[in-house]
Amino acid sequence: xxxxxxxxxxxxxxxxxxxxxxxxxxxxxxxxxxxxxxxxxxxxxxxxxxxxxxxxxxxxxxxxxxxxxxxxxxxxxxxxxxxxxxxxxxxxxxxxxxxxxxxxxxxxxxxxxxxxxxxxxxxxxxxxxxxxxxxxxxxxxxxxxxxxxxxxxxxxxxxxxxxxxxxxxxxxxxxxxxxxxxxxxxxxxxxxxxxxxxxxxxxxxxxxxxxxxxxxxxxxxxxxxxxxxxxxxxxxxxxxxxxxxxxxxxxxxxxxxxxxxxxxxxxxxxxxxxxxxxxxxxxxxxxxxxxxxxxxxxxx
Length: 300
Fold this sequence. Notes:
The strands form three sheets. A five-stranded antiparallel β-sheet has the order 1-2-3-4-5, with helices on one face. The chain has eleven helices and 14 strands. Helix 3 crosses helix 4 (75-85). The chain is an alpha+beta fold and 300 residues long.
């Protein structure tokens, strides 16, 4: 297949309706919210060609991205899985440019996969003229302290990409970037992770000189918001509610009190309890509102 034909086939695969992909893996539509689906990877919201996993704080766009996310596949494997899963007739129609959906998807198992953690980290490039827009969103709509934001910009832990997303770097114990949380700053709420991010190898954090305690939060924005309430505490983003971040035992060894500050909702409570069951020394710290940023923005 020549380069042009390959690109056209990829574009047609990418355009497969995301709901067809979700049905193909036996995901269940939420009975109360038509845009939400329950999958083995967590609750996923679909907005046209975009999706977002609320449990893992990860998202993307198009059927190929969704297949990579749901199945733990690399790009080439996702294409192979989509062609395999939709069956020979449907695959032929895709190659011919006549694919009209994924009604022919079968439940055949996908080819052997490579874990998502093996994907190469691809950080979005910083775009200087987009930074002011991201900072305005974070300061005015999210009410984050501008001085703190400028400090994060100066340290390289916060910048903006060409889509005007706010990019919060995850760093390992040596200060090396191992991933990034992405937060949209436009009219639509969008969150995701840079491809290849390794959330178990590092984290985004607000670290005072001599922290008196540690608070685990679900996102970078929540960590900044929590740190505004508790400036003497080390506030860490787990990049999604997670019960077993691999780096947590390192902090447990420091002997500091660790609080789980996950959202004050069903998912936050469930994951927080799982984390506490795993590490009984961890204490629950509920945000007074739904999350720490809502608490920061709440009227005094």
